[in-house]
Amino acid sequence: MTDKLAVAVCVVGAGPVGGALACRLAAGGVPVAVVDQAALPPMEHPDFDGRAYAVAAGSKLMLQAAGLWDALPYPAGPIHDIRVSDGKVGRPASPLHLHFGAWEAGAEAFGWMVEARSLRMALNDKLHSAPGVSLFAPAKIDVTRTAEGAVVRVAGGPEIACQLVVAAEGRRSPLREAAGIAVTRLDYKQTGMVFAIGHEHPHNGTALEHFLPAGPFAQLPMAGTEQAENLSAIVWTERTATAERLLALPPEAFIREAARRLGGHLGEIRLLGKRWSYPLTAMHAHRYVDTRLVLAGDAAHGVHPIAGQGLNLGFADAAALASLLIAAHDAGEDLGAPALLRRYQSARRPANLAMLAATDALDRLFSTDNPALRLARDLGIAAVHRLPPLKRAFMKAAMGGG
After folding, report:
1. Which residue range(s) make up the domain with 267?
2. Residue 269 sits in a domain of what CATH number?
3. In whole angstroms, what is the distance from residue 227 CA to residue 218 CA?
């Protein structure tokens, strides 16, 4: 006889967005099941691997409400200042640059750098221990959705009856494909290289976004660890063929190339952890909803990392969806009602599409050495400096507020 479990919502995918959404729903009194194809050990202690997330100020509120922020086992590093510059490899940056201080926006910080392992450990522990969360991982599932409700069948486990299924399984979402939801994709023919460095001089909470002809080079301040008192994450974009050659270099030669792009303000640098690489593409689902189904996070959208907002868009999805579902649950309403799902789509799809358009335009504007476009960039940087309302708009966006 098959076991049966009844919940309000079943979240498929226990990554940062799906996991945070589930924890937020449970904290709001909504019974939730979480299924993931991978095992989620609650007490894993992985070594530092060089990966980190830039969590905007708005996303921090979501993680706090989900009970995750205070559960992070390693400290987060605040981003107090952002410096944006334009230049060429091995040459001085343009004298025109932008400097944003969180104090100018009356904020504690623009965001925080959170180690990937730290968020993973907090999520796994909370998903195992939070009241109102039923976790099934690793799990293979079969999903049936009708106008009356949804059933998620776990292989070797229960049948989960629910009002709503949330697809949070990433860009290759099987649930999105099964629903026949089309997507638009963009291939930037670039590769993002991600790693961490220890450095001689303190970063003082300042992030650098250095625009180079092949793509942006970002240095993001992290909290120190036992391995390095002064620690930063690097997100380095190159054309794919160049990135492949760089990644084939031994660590010492690779770091020398990174230092040429970073400049000397942090002193001597060294590689910590592994080097990771990702092909850079963008995608956007033509709709976020189907019968008893919503898309969240990378299942719905993906953007170029030039503004560091990809994960924060997913957390904004989770925050908006959780708010709607908790209110509907408190009112005794159907959490899978088409009108409710359309409200979620209306709240998030335009904002995500606008960020896709903005990051695409920024990449095309900055990832070039065309003299006319370089002049336009420099004029734009100067204009932002002279126009406080425009500067405030950029700072608001950096904090996840628009």
Report:
1. 69-115+185-282+369-398
2. 3.30.9.10
3. 21
Residue-by-residue DSSP string for 167-200: E-S-TT-HHHHHTT--EEEEEEEEEEEEEEEEES
112/370: higher pLDDT: 112
What is the rounded distance in angstroms from the CA atom of residue 267 to the CA atom of residue 229? Answer: 13
| Tokens at 104, concatenated | 């100018």
Give the integer Cα–Cα distance in Å for 276 and 319. Answer: 29
- Determine the Cα–Cα distance for residues 225 and 233; give it in Å rounded to an integer: 13
**Residues 219 and 130 both lie in one domain:** no
In the three-class reduction of DSSP (H, G, I as helix; E, B as strand; rest coil), residue 341 is classed as helix
Average pLDDT, the chain: 89
Q: Work out how many domains the chain is built from and give that number.
A: 2
- Which of helix, strand or coil describes residue 360? helix
Q: 344 and 260, same structural domain?
A: no
Pairing, β 97-101 against β 52-56 = unpaired
- Lookup result for tokens 């909803």: 289
Looking at the structure, do residues 172 and 195 belong to the same domain, yes or no? no
Q: What's the CA gap between 167 and 170, in Å, rounded?
A: 8
For residue 189, is it within any domain? yes
Inter-axis angle of helices 16-27 and 57-65, to 10 degrees? 50
pLDDT for 92 equals 47
Same domain, 137 and 165: yes
| Shared domain check, 296 and 150 | yes
- Tokens in use for 176? 């999105």
User: What CATH number is given to the structural domain containing 176?
Assistant: 3.50.50.60
| Pick from 380, 383, 10: nearest CA to 164 | 10
Q: Are 296 and 318 in contact (CB under 8 A)?
A: yes
Residue 360 pLDDT exceeds 50 = yes
- Cis peptide bond prior to 213, omega within 30° of 0: no
Is residue 52 domain-resident?
A: no
Strand intervals (E) in 63-149: 77-79, 81-86, 97-101, 111-115, 133-136, 141-145
- Cα distances from 121 to residues 46, 117, 128, in angstroms, run 9, 6, 11
- The answer to whether residues 177 and 190 belong to one domain is no
**With contact defined as beta carbons under 8 Å apart, do 280 and 304 qualify?**
yes
C-alpha triplet 185, 62, 70: angle, nearest 5°: 125
Q: pTM value?
A: 0.91
- Tens digits of per-residue pLDDT, 8-66? 999 999 999 999 999 999 999 999 999 999 998 876 666 778 899 999 988 999 999 99
Same domain, 244 and 262: yes
